[in-house]
Write a structure and sequence with these properties.
422 residues; alpha/beta; UDP-n-acetylglucosamine1-carboxyvinyl-transferase, Chain; 2 domains; 14 helices; elongated; binds ligand EPZ
Length: 422
């Protein structure tokens, strides 16, 4: 297993190009199952999760061609040969459950393994199931798989979500696009990745209104065609790299960054004494004057502060002036980066869904363990300003969601290298 070594103390300067959004691409790729015409995705991120989704779709009989070293994906599913999403693939990546809606809508059946829990929480699917049953699906849990069928096809329904689940909203959006009649999703997730999926489905011929708001209305159509769609910028990668110059000092321009993708996050940075400037090419970030100061953070569904930036923000707050309280409201176990940051000299107390961070002058490098995707990158960020050497192990977590992190940070002056295990 590879490790990444970071030697702290260098100020950063230059530009980092932000890739297409992992969490948009993982919803856009299964959309190919809705049509027998080709779907082309441009600005696709080059990540292991994308490869996992491609493997899953190919196991269903879809064709996935990677072009321009992975930046363009050609997908087609004119010959779906299976509706079985196997545990061996689904257990590695929860987003595999996004084949459920499309398979049901176009093929009338699906056997999708329950993902099982992951490091950050139990990750149930009750909201997906309740919604699809309201649309006429029969879904039974047997042998760890959801066995879903629908006699006579899905029908439109009013679907109130008890929580604005991103994945459930995406599954319903895709299912409703081919259902008979009108579907209204109430308390829909509003994330930019939802908006991106709706735009792609509309290009394929879907009739959708209201994406980005809590109420989305979908008028089912008989069939969907092909499309070419550019994947939206990754707002989580953007926020992650915006924090690099805040932690290490200096100034970095994140190419492709747009303020509206990270507005709640940028407001917190402003309150912490950080300048975020929209330039013609992206977002330029630097400390306003000296050490950032403490701010409190509560994670919420979009447009609130994103849970996927909580670990990275905590890394920054470890060396901010003062005491910050972070409240994690989305996942039940998303502070596993805290004990690793404490090993680097951070002063953090965790009680349930709250973490109190008392800022210290400097962190000290140490060997640390990555536990999930965002926790991993928070340790890399912490290492940028730590005295000495930080060795982050198990970086396969990182490679799921970040393209060549050592190259992108190295380009702006970080002393960082990947050690490939023999
Ligand atoms: C998406 O996961 C993202 N993944 C996650 O990013 C992100 O953290 C999450 O949305 C919240 O923004 C992808 O888009 C591939 P949810 P998803 O359904 O769809 C509970 C990353 O680091 N819930 O909005 O699984 C659930 O347990 C990943 O890139 C139910 O209880 O998130 C969680 O506590 C991590 N029942 C909360 O809702 C359900 O049926 C949010 O889940 C569904 C969800």
């Amino acid at each position: 297993m590879d490790s990444i070594i970071v030697r702290g103390g260098r100020e950063l300067s230059g530009t980092i190009r932000i890739a297409g959004a992992k969490n948009a691409a993982l919803a856009l790729m299964p959309a190919t199952l809705l049509s027998d015409e080709p779907l082309t995705l441009t600005n696709a991120p080059r990540l292991s999760d994308i490869k996992t989704m491609a493997t899953l779709l190919q196991s269903l009989g879809a064709e996935v061609t990677s072009m321009q070293s992975g930046k363009v994906l050609g997908l087609s599913s004119h010959a779906v040969t299976s509706t079985h999403a196997d545990y061996e693939i689904v257990r590695k990546m929860r987003a595999s459950n996004l084949v459920l809606g499309p398979l049901l809508a176009r093929h009338g059946q699906a056997e999708v393994s329950l993902p099982g829990g992951c490091a950050i929480g139990a990750r149930p699917m009750d909201i997906h199931i309740t919604a699809l049953e309201a649309m006429g699906a029969s879904i039974e849990l047997r042998d760890g798989y959801l066995h879903a069928t629908t006699k006579g096809g899905l029908r439109g329904a009013v679907v109130p979500l008890r929580f604005a689940s991103v994945g459930a909203t995406e599954n319903i959006l895709m299912a409703a696009s081919l259902a008979r009649g009108t579907t209204v999703i109430e308390n829909a997730a509003r994330e930019p990745e939802i908006v991106d999926l709706a735009r792609c489905l509309r290009a394929m011929g879907a009739q959708i209104e209201g994406e980005g708001t809590s109420r989305i209305e979908i008028q089912g159509v008989d069939r969907l065609g092909g499309a070419t769609h550019q994947v939206v910028t990754d707002r989580i990668e953007l926020g992650t790299y915006m924090l690099a110059p805040v932690i290490a000092g200096g100034s970095v321009e994140c190419i492709g960054g747009r303020l509206e993708l990270v507005s709640a996050f940028a407001e917190k940075l402003d309150a912490a004494g950080v300048s975020v400037e929209q330039t013609a090419n992206g977002l330029r970030v630097a400390r306003k004057n000296g050490r950032p100061h403490a701010v409190d953070v509560v994670t919420e569904p979009f447009p609130g502060f994103p849970t996927d930036l909580q670990a990275q923000m905590m890394a920054m707050l470890c060396t901010a002036e003062g005491t910050s309280v972070l409240e994690e409201r989305i996942f039940e176990n998303r502070f596993m980066h805290a004990p690793e940051l404490v090993r680097m000299g951070a002063h953090i107390e965790v009680q349930g869904g709250h973490a109190t961070v008392h800022g210290v002058d400097r962190l000290r490098g140490a060997p640390v363990m990555a536990t999930d995707l965002r926790a991993s990158v928070s340790l890399i960020l912490a290492g940028l300003a730590a005295e000495g050497e930080t060795v982050v192990n198990r970086v396969y977590h990182l490679d799921r969601g970040y393209e060549h992190v050592e190259e992108k940070l190295g380009q702006v002056g970080a002393d960082i290298e990947r050690i490939t295990a023999p």
